[in-house]
Design brief:
Helix content is 24%, strand content 24%. It is an alpha/beta fold. Helix 1 runs parallel beside helix 8. The longest helix has 16 residues, at 309-324. The protein is elongated, with a radius of gyration of 22 Å. It binds flavin-adenine dinucleotide.
Length: 325
């Protein structure tokens, strides 16, 4: 029976970093990834730009060289997939983990294709798979999307963008520049302070000149084929003509999966229980890495500040192994 030292669930940047660290430490590891390598980034908007400069997205000592200071999606895919390819990392793509069960001192990790036995598990599953739903009438219509790819399908159309942070602002500006008539709806009275510093003047000036209309202090009440109904804080309802809705309302980690493996979540914030020194959860032998650690607050962790989770975990595993020998 093949027994892994560590099975890493998720082949995003942080899962890849765990694989690199495992190689360095001589641990027997396997990454199971439900899509392609760096699957979340693969599904990002085609022309997005990272807010981090390339050096802050680097893994290990592998340089991330780009001609622009801020890399885009394609640069990041070349970089992360290139690492997996060149380092011949042990990754099974298109193999989603369904369950993790404790069997004596081991874990059985099961996908639809196979069962694996491992001493330790790292969960690096990110947060990009489950959108924060608005839970309103009409959200299920095919013209409503929580993901955005590129602007060219919307020229001459009425587009509503829901949200106040980077994703919403990027969608609004791109679709406006490609000929859409764009309205935004923002729950608070301003755009998020996290909007990229070089993008903020652009969106603010487009709003000021009236090219993009924004309803601040408002939310979407319902969506129908030809209209959206917005509700302002005063209670006033406004019908806005509409062809497409981009609900950039954020995403959440798969809490059900975390709970199914026995990880305790804070009832309010859903932040999982783990030791920040080793990243080990309340389930002995199960570790968390990357943005999955943030619970509902998906702005807490990003690549820049969670790259070091890999070294923490793998050095803890190395020490654990040495203390048993
Ligand atoms: C538009 C956008 C721009 C961003 N810009 C920046 C930036 O400039 N700088 C920065 O530091 N961060 C940025 N972030 C955040 C960062 O890109 C992501 O948070 C990053 O991808 C997190 O890495 P991760 O490995 O923790 O998670 P992810 O990259 O999400 O990787 C998780 C992986 O797990 C896989 N997976 C999930 N469930 C399973 C399962 N059951 N079985 C097997 N595989 C599974 C997924 O397919 C995915 O590939 C940005 C995020 C977005 C959305």
């Amino acid at each position: 029976m093949e027994v892994f030292d560590v099975l890493i669930i998720g082949g995003g940047p942080i899962g890849i970093n765990c694989a690199l660290e495992s190689e360095k430490r001589g641990l027997k590891y396997l990454v199971l990834e439900k899509g392609t390598v760096a699957n979340s980034i693969y599904h990002y908007p085609l022309y997005m730009t990272f807010f981090s400069s390339a050096d802050r997205l680097e893994l290990g000592d592998i340089p991330f060289i780009t001609t622009a200071v801020k890399p885009g999606r394609r640069d990041a895919l070349e970089y992360y997939q290139g690492i997996a390819r060149r380092k011949k990392l042990n990754i099974h793509t298109y193999e989603k983990v369904e369950t993790v069960d404790k069997v004596e001192e081991f874990f059985r990790v099961s996908s639809l294709k196979a069962d694996y036995v491992t001493r330790n598990v790292v969960i690096a599953t990110g947060f990009y798979d489950i959108p924060n739903l608005m839970n309103i009438e009409g959200e299920e219509l095919s013209k409503v999307s929580h993901y955005y790819r590129e602007p060219y399908g919307y020229a001459g159309k009425e587009v509503l963008v829901v949200g106040a942070s980077n994703s919403a602002v990027d969608v609004a500006l791109e679709t406006y520049r490609s000929g859409a008539r764009v309205t935004m709806v923002v729950r608070g009275d301003e755009f998020s302070p996290s909007v990229k510093y070089w993008v903020r003047p652009d969106i603010e000036n487009r709003v000021k000149e009236g090219s993009i209309k924004v309803y601040f202090n408002a939310s979407v009440k319902s969506i129908s084929q030809d209209f959206v109904t917005l509700q302002q804080m005063s209670g006033t309802l406004v019908d806005v003509p509409n062809d497409f809705v981009f609900a950039m309302t954020g995403y959440v980690p798969d809490f059900r999966f975390l709970e199914s493996v026995g990880i305790a979540l804070d009832p309010l914030t859903k932040i999982p229980s783990y030791d920040p020194l080793t990243m080990e959860t309340n389930v002995h032998g199960i570790y968390l890495a990357g943005v999955v650690c943030g619970g509902r607050d998906t702005h807490l962790w990003f690549i820049e500040n969670s790259r070091d989770h890999a070294a923490k975990i793998i050095s803890a595993l190395g020490e654990k192994r040495n203390s048993k020998n």
